Automatic annotation (TrEMBL):
Its EC number is 4.1.1.1. Mg(2+) binds at residues 385, 412, 414. It catalyses: a 2-oxocarboxylate + H(+) = an aldehyde + CO2. This is pyruvate decarboxylase. The lineage of its organism: Eukaryota, Viridiplantae, Streptophyta, Embryophyta, Tracheophyta.
Amino acid sequence: MGTHVPRGVGACVVTFTVGGLSVLNAIAGAYSENLPVICIVGGPNSNDYGTSKILHHTIGLPDFSQELRCFQTVTCTQAVLNNLDDAHELIDTAISTALKESKPAYISIGCNLPGIPHPTFARDPVPFFLAPKVSNQLGLEAAVEAAAEFLNKSVKPVIVGGPKVRVAKAQKAFVELADACGYPIAVMPSGKGLVPEHHPSFIGTYWGAVSSGFCGEIVESADAYVFVGPIFNDYSSVGYSLLIKKEKLIVVEPNRVTIGNGPSFGWVFMTDFLSALAKKLKMNCTALENHHRIYVPPGVALKREKNELLRVNILFKHIQEMLSGNTAVIAETGDSWFNCQKLHLPENCGFEFQMQYGSIGWSVGATLGYAQAAKDKRIIACIGDGSFQVTAQDISTMIRCAQKNIIFLINNGGYTIEVEIHDGPYNVIKNWDYTGLVNAIHNGEGKCWTAKVKTEEDLIEAITTATTTHKDSLCFIEVFLHKDDTSKELLEWGSRVSAANSRPPNPQ
C-alpha cells in the first residue's frame, strides 16, 4: 500500500447473510479503491439448496440468493460452492479474476463441505501464476509517438499522478518518466503516497482551488498536462471547478491512452507506455523553473501564548516531524483529509485514505489491517471523533494483536466536514471520554497507553512518550481542538462541494 510493497491480496471470512451484509460496506470501499479482497462466506448446508427451508440469519424467506445479489454489484466475480466436483475450478477462477481485475471477489462455501476429501484437491497446491498482460505493440508505438509529438512541442508541460497508478503497479515507471523529462510532478489528492514526494521535481498536491501552494497555478497554466491514472469525481474536482482543458490533456489509464481531443489507444498498458515515453521526451524544465521562481515556503504559524489551547496547524507541524520511512499515515474521512494532505511524505513513508468512497470510521479498521500486514512500520492514524464513534471497537483487536499504532483522536465536538458542507444540529455528537473508553477496552491486558492533550506542551510530551517509553505500545492520544478550527482548504472545498450538491434541477 502506498510505497509499501503490497502483499497481493486480502481476505475476510464471515457468516452467511448476517455477516455478509455487515461486511458489504467494507467490500464496496475495497472495490472503489481497486483492492483485491477475497470475501469468503460460510454458506448453507449443500443439502438445503433447492428446498423450501427457512434458515436462521436470513430475512425469513426460503431464498438463499439475497446475499449473492447484494455482492454482485460490489465484487468482480461470485462463486457459490454447494458441491465438491467443481469447487476447485470455481475457487481458482474467483481468486484469479480478483487478482487480474484488482477488485474484490465473493466465494460462498456450503458449511458441510470443508474438510471432506475430494480427488480434485488431492495434491499440494500448485504455485499460482498469472500470465503477464502485454500491450498491443503497434498501439503502444503509435501512442508513444503521438504523445511525444504533443509534449515535445509544448512549452511548459507537467505530469500529475492519480490513484490508478496503484492498480497499474506503475510507481517505478512513473519515476522513470519524471527523471527523463524534467517536468514538474504533482499528485491528485487520492493518489497521495503513490508519487515520491522526495523527488526533486515534486511540486505538491493538485486539487484545483485547494491545491497546495503554487502547485495549482503551475498545473492549470501549463500548455500540456499528462494525468496518469486519474479519477475525476465531484470531490477531487472540488465541485467540478478544475481549470483543465481537454485539448491540452493526455490521460493515461491503466490500459488506455487518450491524447487531447484526438486519438485514443486501447490495450496500451500504463507501465509500458510511461517507460517507452520516457525514452522519447526532450528534457524540459521550464515549468519546474517557473515553480521555483514563484514558490514561497508556507508561512509559520503565529506565535502562541503559553498554555494557549492547541491549534490544528500546530498539531500537524508536530505530526510532520514524526514521519520517516518506517511510518505510515492513515487519514480518516473528514478534515484529516486536508490536514494529512499537507504532510510531506519522506521516502517509503506509507499513506492511505479513502477519497472515492469516503466511509467514515473506515480508518480504524484500515489501521488494524495495515499494521497487521506492514509489521516493519509504525502506523500514525488521524481520526476525528465523529468517525471514531462508528468503529471504535476495532481498538480491541489492535491491543489483542499487540499492535503499536499511534492514534491521534481529534476531539472537536462533531462532524466538522459536514458542518462546512451543510450544517445542522445533527452534526453535534455525544462527547465521549475517549481515553477512558480505550482504557476500559485495554483493561490491563496487553500494551496500551493513553493521554489527553490540550496545549502544545502536552502534545510534545505525549509524542515523546509515545516514541520512547511506549514505543512498543498502542498509543492513543486524544487531542482537544476548537470545533471551528479547520484547515482553510476544508472551508473552501466545503463551500464549493455544497454549491455543486445543491444545484437546482435543470428546466425540462
